[in-house]
Amino acid sequence: MIPAAAESALDVAGAVRRGERTARSVTETALEMIAAREPELHAFLHVAADEARAAADSIDDALRAGRDPGPLAGVPVALKDNLCTRGIPTTCASKILEGWRPPYDATVVVRLRDAGAVVVGKTNLDEFAMGSSTENSCQGPTCHPMDPTRVPGGSSGGSAAAVGAGLVPLALGSDTGGSVRQPAALCGTVGMKPTYGLVSRYGLVAFASSLDQIGPLAGSVADAALLLEVIAGHDPLDSTSLDHPVPQVSRSIDAGVDRMRVGLVDELVDDTAPDVARRIREAAEELAQAGALVEEVAVPEMRLGLSAYYLIAPAEASSNLARYDGVRYGLRVEAPDVAAMNTATRTAGFGPEVKRRIMLGTYALSAGYYDAYYGKAQRARTLIVRAFDRAYERFDVLLGATAPSTAFAIGERTADPLAMYMSDVCTIPSNLAGHPAMSVPFGTGDDGLPVGVQILAPALGEERMFQVAAALERAAGARWR
Amino acid sequence: MSVDGGAPGGTAPRGGAPGGTAPRGGAPGGTAWETVVGLEVHCELKTRTKLFCSCKNAFGDEPNTNVCPVCLGLPGSLPVLNAFAVELAMRIGTALHCEVRPSIFHRKNYFYPDMPKDYQISQYDEPINVGGWLELPDATRVGIVRAHIEEDTGKTTHQGESGRIHAAEYALVDYNRAGVPLVEIVSEPDLRSAAQARLYVTELRAVLVATGASDGRMEEGSLRVDANVSVRRLGDGAYGTRCEVKNLNSLRSLGRAIEYEAARQVALLEATGIVAQETRHWDENAGRTVPLRSKEEAFDYRYFPEPDLVPLAPDAEWQARAAGAIGLLPAERRARLSTLLGAAPTTQQAEQVRVVVSQGLDDLVVAAAAGGAPADLVLVRAANELASDLDAALSLDPGAFGALVAMEARGALTATQSKAVLVELLTAGGGDPAAIAAAKGFEALSESSLADAVRDVVEAHPDEWERFMAGEAKLAGFFTGQVMRATQGKADGKAIAAELRRLRERDGPDPTDHGGRGDRDDHGGRGDRDNHGGRGDGGDRTGMERAGEDV
Predict the structure, then answer these.
(1) Of A208, A236, A318, the CB nearest to B80
(2) Cβ–Cβ under 8 Å, residues A59 and A102
(3) Domain count of the fold of chain B
(4) Is the pLDDT of residue B526 over 50?
(5) ipTM of the complex
(6) Cα–Cα distance between B225 and B40 in angstroms, integer?
(7) Known active-site residue A376
(8) Which of B284, B301, B318 is the last residue of a domain?
(9) What CA–CA distance (Å, rounded) separates B263 from B281?
């Protein structure tokens, strides 16, 4: 079932830099594969073929002129459609942003271009990144690359499906409550959420600002490391951006896990389906085999995460999404006065899940309710951070499942928002704490669909996290190839 | 000022509205009403760029030219705080004796088309400056609750609102102002009249200009004022229900709106006993306030900490640097002039000091006095002769000005001659006062010539002299006029008065019970005007003597 992995980004960039292949030919191949698979997958909202060819040609020109286009020379990259791309539509899969073309590139896009990457298109997502299945897209769902009746996860489902299907070696997603890691797990790819502030959010259309991080999706741990190193680093345009050296994750992936202290988190195993839980325990055993010191640990505060998240994230979203009022850009539904126009535009422009969260968030911030909801959620967040701090006194990294189940059927959870929200139960705590976490494929469930194992690390613990991820990737390769 | 129970007189701005701005009393109970005012002043900071982006902070540019993704609130954009705006805010806080403290930003959420993000980044319960005060020239100390940083909105211009051509109704929004840094300064309800509210804004404006934070241009919206107005029976401890009055774009609007609003509330209280808490809009043309929204319709702003910005905690060194960059504050400038006078200033001198400082002429006065000219006369000349041509006065050479006043002080020029020379100096921006005086043919009479002239006049008018000796003090004016005529104006009024006094003492017993009044009656009608600003009855004796110079 698992398709042959796409060429790795490292291989592509190496071949292009050595002059063995042109960026243009790599781009054409990617565009052909996208054209072939898109009718079934619907991973993309916009394929920027012309811009991609022009970018590839300029990379080839640079090479001919003796200049090095950078570590991602000629590598096709897909971007989640909530990342601003100058002149290329950026819709967040929402009717309210239909036709909007940003006048600027997100910082990560600038860094990708500067590294020689070729942006081939914008991928599907749950509207404004609110969802766990990519079904909340105004353009319709993306299908799982291995089973078109299943969801790819979400909200970065388009990016995960594109990488999982081998259409592109690399993609970017955004992770507010698990939106990179969960679809990566479901689609059998590597997906990673950096430490909050490690990657600039400038140009990422905000969902919940204190939780949002842009993260890489890739076919391998090494490719994810390469992409992270390109996009990470301080950005003066983002006040929450960390002024800290970029972790050298590529160099750490071969370091092994000998004497590494790994905590297998009870809550991230017990709260998952039996076939998933079994794989996670096997992963822990593999690490122990490789020399890690593995112990089980209970972190019960993690169970507060889901409730706290569904107050904090909607509260921030209710404010972040206020600007879509029909006045300056995007959709406008005419009405007799401004207030009526605002209402008509927002009624027509937002989908039901976005409206639900705007209402939740507005309520949580309202006078008289603030302390009981938003305030209390922030206190729960503090408890979670402290619980992590205690765990990291004993462990270098924590281990658990990325998602409670393998990919579920399209339509299975759309009628029950709470069931859908549960898809993020394993990933949310890291967002609330601002910590890095990543998902690595580790075998399949009873249904033959991928299972992801999640590695969690303290703030700026990316290097040890990638060490463990690479060890698990090697173990999985040895087990199933 | 009549029923406000506030500071004593002398606080009405020069040439401003008359006093008595508080609503009339005359309630059935007979107790007068007191106006209570607290002000919220929005001050645009004079930064080069906006609060959260590098767009130009400028007034009057072509609409929507100073904009970028950040100040347009485009999706994905993020704010980055302007450090200089923080520095100016700290200067303001320091100048207002606030505690400058670590702070955070909040989002204030409400929908408005000229607010690009549909929330305003502001400070809420942890502002940068808290708990200060501003002392007014009338010695009232007005409490400052807070002075916090926030971003300005864009500017909406409503078009075709005649109501006749429905299709023509639309609004234009200019986002050049969106994201311009503001400091909102919130006062305690310590003001007790429209006049005092104006005095507060005038003083605050001078403080803001002195800190370098503001250009003080109310007409360009650099300072915008909202007034919280309530009334209560004089002597009542509790405040009445307040209304917030918006759209006060000038000192005149501020004064009129407070007077109107206080009177409206008094009328309501006397008729129904109830004032509804609401936000009201000042209609400048109609001269009245109209309801904007009631308490029930008030927005729920859903404040929460701005997640896109980090907490602001200026270290001691930065705070000290900001404090050190503040220029002399108006109160310090006034104190400096008062010190220069050498003795406690008279009421009249205090007013002259206030005028000179408010017009920025105090540096000139200090410099001129430093050159040896007597400070009191320098002050009088600056307050009375320079205000009419302020632009010229501000570029006047202090050396030349001081030299002129010194000539007058030692009697080399009469007051009239001195003023004529000053006009020339102002026109030229400076020059040699002695040369100008000589060119005009001005020469003060020698002491003996003056004495001769006075004696001649006295001898020519024996009857009048008899009556003068008998106590008819107003005849001093007659003699002065005669001496002036005889000397073609070259005599000095003060010197004539002194000579008359000397002759009178020589010729008979000094009628001391009339002497003081004599000067006053004599000069009140004529000499007063220059020095008293029309308030001839307000000064004390020292002031009257000073007035005598101007005869």
Answers:
(1) A236
(2) no
(3) 2
(4) no
(5) 0.96
(6) 6
(7) no
(8) B301
(9) 16
